[in-house]
Predict the structure.
Amino acid sequence: MDRCYFCHGKVTAKRIEHLHRWGEALLLVKGLPAEVCEECKEVYLPPASLHVLDDLMARRETLTEFVQIPVYSLP
Ligand SMILES: [Zn+2]
């Protein structure tokens, strides 16, 4: 892909931090190859990266770190 589907901006290959949601589970992946629109910052994950995410969800024992995130529950 070289043009953004939404704004037709230029899309370039980058490594991103991706917060992946899988049901109740969240997984933060750093250095995931993706294509990012330079205009609207839309992120496109290539099939290879989606495969990596599936793979990581399947073997979570290879986690490298845990981070804490703040959670607010609104009334
Ligand atoms: Zn765009």
Strands lie at 11-22, 25-37, 43-44.
